[in-house]
Design goal:
Blueprint lengths: L1 E5 L4 H12 L3 E6 L6 H4 L8 E5 L5 H7 L7 E4 L6 H6 L1 H22 L3 E7 L10 E2 L11 H20 L2 E7 L1 E3 L7 H11 L3 E4 L6 E2 L1 E3 H11 L6 E6 L6 E2 H12 L5 E4 L14 E2 L2 H4 L9 H14 L1
Parallel strand pairs: 1-2, 1-4, 2-3, 4-5, 5-7, 6-15, 7-12, 8-11, 9-14
Antiparallel strand pairs: 10-13
Helix pairs in contact: 1-8, 3-5, 5-6, 7-9, 9-11
The protein binds nicotinamide-adenine-dinucleotide.
């Protein structure tokens, strides 16, 4: 297959591009390096099945024009703002990089008659549904972050484009993804803070925020597994792990792995890290497990592996 990967120079995108190339696909990668890095994708340059375009996908016309001579069997759309805290400071960030990138991709697919799409959505679309088991068919969703709102708006636009243009779409709603090449988030913050001061660690909230963390290679396995044969219409899956890890537990693992003892934790208080943060949620994973896929890493394992990666880097 010849595939387009948007956001392919980013954290998850880099792993996906690698797997798609290893599976013998021709891969065209698009990124504007907002958060992705040239060095992440340099290693693919020697592969004759790989091509890169630096394009800002928000500019629908420029994006369509730049790629007008390329033909694709499928698009993996990963480009988005992945930094929810950055988006919380300026709603335009998610309007542009999370919603408009999706619009541009859909419009490109319509004009080029491309029928297959993978979309990377998020647990953030569910909003703050405390105590509810989150299933894919839950209605009346009220996202609380601009990021969650822009992803949910994207899912809705995808639904209409899918109906109007006979698309086959695989949408994954995943929780925090961690592993090699991670660029930001709680683990990164803790490592940086501890390197600056190994005696004390500031923890946002009260440390009880508890979420599932999926290891990036588990997620990529699942993407490959589920996009081999996409049914017509829109298929939506929660993809994650059954286990969850609290922020305090992450701090413990980071301290253990970096060899820091007797660190004093200073909690900023409240049960959320920042406004728009969803402190706890519980995914129902029955639908994805029924396909035969299961994650290999628990949340704690994924955190530990990620800290080891950052340490060795
Ligand atoms: N990492 C997570 O925990 C997580 C969780 C749920 C969903 N997701 C989704 O998965 C996808 C990949 O996330 P990631 O963690 O690899 O993030 P990332 O920031 O590393 O990757 C996103 C890539 O998109 C690129 N990009 C952003 N705006 C662009 C634009 N206008 N034009 C071209 N390129 C643009 C960035 O430069 C970056 O390389 C995103 O859609 C994200 O929302 C991530």
């Amino acid at each position: 297959m010849k595939v387009l990967v948007t956001g392919g120079a980013g954290f998850i995108g880099t792993h996906l591009v690698e797997r798609l190339l290893n599976e013998g696909n021709e891969v065209v990668c698009v990124d504007n390096f907002t958060l992705g890095k040239q060095e992440n994708v340099d290693k693919f340059n020697e592969n004759s099945n790989y091509k890169f375009y630096k394009i800002d996908i928000n500019d629908t016309e420029a994006f369509c024009k730049e790629l007008e001579n390329e033909e694709f069997d499928m698009v993996y759309h990963l480009a988005a703002n992945s930094d929810i805290q950055k988006g919380a400071k300026n709603p335009l960030v998610d309007y542009n990089d999370t919603f408009m990138t999706t619009f541009s991709v859909l419009e490109f697919m319509r004009r080029k008659n491309i029928k297959k799409l993978f979309f990377s959505s998020t647990s953030a679309i569910y909003g703050n549904e405390v105590g509810k088991m989150l299933t894919e068919d839950l209605g009346g969703l009220l996202p609380i972050s601009y990021y969650g709102g822009a992803k949910y708006a994207s899912e809705n636009f995808i639904s209409s484009y899918a109906y109007m243009n006979d698309l086959s779409v695989m949408t994954f709603r995943f929780p925090n993804v961690i592993g090699p090449n991670l660029t930001h988030g709680v683990i990164y913050d803790f490592v940086k803070k501890l390197q600056a001061n190994p005696n004390e660690l500031e923890i946002l909230g009260d440390g009880t925020q508890t979420k599932p963390y999926i290891y990036v290679l588990d997620l990529v396995d699942c993407i490959i597994h589920m996009t081999k044969d996409i049914p017509s219409g829109v298929s939506i899956y929660n993809v994650g792990v059954e286990t969850a890890t609290s922020v305090t537990r992450i701090a413990d693992i980071v301290c253990e792995e970096l060899g820091y003892e007797n660190v004093k934790y200073n909690y900023t208080g409240g049960n959320v890290g920042w406004k728009g943060d969803v402190p706890k949620f519980q995914y129902n994973l029955d639908k994805i497990h029924a396909t035969g896929w299961n994650a290999n890493y628990t949340s704690d394992d994924a955190v530990r592996e990620t800290v080891r990666y950052i340490k060795n880097k």
